[in-house]
Amino acid sequence: MRGHIRERSPGHWAIVIDARDAAGNRKRRWFSFSGSKRDAQRRCAELIAETRGGSAASPERMTVGEYLERWLDHMRPLVSPKSHERYGQMARANLIPVIGTTPIAKLSPMQISGAYATMIRNGLAPATVIHVHRLLSQALKHAVRWRILPANPCNDVSPPRFERRELRVWNTQTMAAALDAARGWRCHIPILLASLCGMREGEIAALRWRHVDLDRGLIAVVEAVEQTCAGVRVKPPKSGKGRSVTLPALAVSELRQWRVQQAEAFLGLGIRSNEDTRVVTRGDGLPMTPSAIYKSWVRFLADSGLPRIRFHDLRHSHATALLSSGIHPKVASERLGHARVGITLDVYSHVIGNMQDSAAAAIDAAFAEANGSKAVAMVPLSSKKAP
Q1: Residue 166's closest CA among 12, 347, 352?
Q2: Per-residue model confidence (pLDDT) at position 344
Q3: Which CATH class is domain 172-323?
């Protein structure tokens, strides 16, 4: 029996144990480890000793719960902290309680389908079950690669169907009323940036004054704040690349006023504002986190009496207003920071569908004009005598 370590990323190691079963067939097992190289080597030696003694769980005896925990450990350095946190929440809250004690070697498509049915009976939304299915399918795909399973049982399972709910959005009149009512609230500028520029909460929380060019009327969206249970970090925007957003005149005017107000408030605290200062801050001058923006938004809604929507729905309201005004989906997609225009067309298909009447009317008008021109052009020909 042998074992060795491989470095996946700084401080993260894969421990590989080579052993043979009773029939003499070679079995390779993988373990994830975080720490120094010396500690990884020590853990490798411990795993070899445990395997020789039969105390380590073999793939044949490993349960789904044990496997998912090891897979989550493997995925930690490969995805963002926020994604890893969501993976862990879905696995531990939804999968492990239902099929966690099942030996992974005996996991069947029927058991997985039954687990999904149980989740729905327990009140889990079909859309959430679909996310759980994707997570389990991804995890078991690695089990196939690691020779733990001969095939992925999720391939033979159909996740539940669900109807996408219609987006709840505000019209421009309600957004204007909200902007007026939010003056004096910490969420005023976030509401402005979400409803007039289509920015996400994390992008708003990360925005600095050096990213705002009020003279040219442009915002450079190059960073986003990601908040997890472990803390807050700054990362690239969701699409992985930055974008430039043109500011409406109203946004330029409001941001000019806000920068002066913020600088005056900072002087009262003994703080000097500069280009690195966040556009959205707390009363003590510290940056607002996405959760702080959302909490301020919830309090504002309760006080204002406006129709209740999520803060993220302000971004949807902005996109709906763009498309309803006839803005090309490609332009709207670039403004929203979607990775491709297909996402815009899919998410806002209800708006595109509502524009069908206008499209049909435009075609009628174009052909009517063309037929009128044709009739005029034919008049001289009809007046000619036949030869």
Answers
A1: 347
A2: 80
A3: mainly alpha
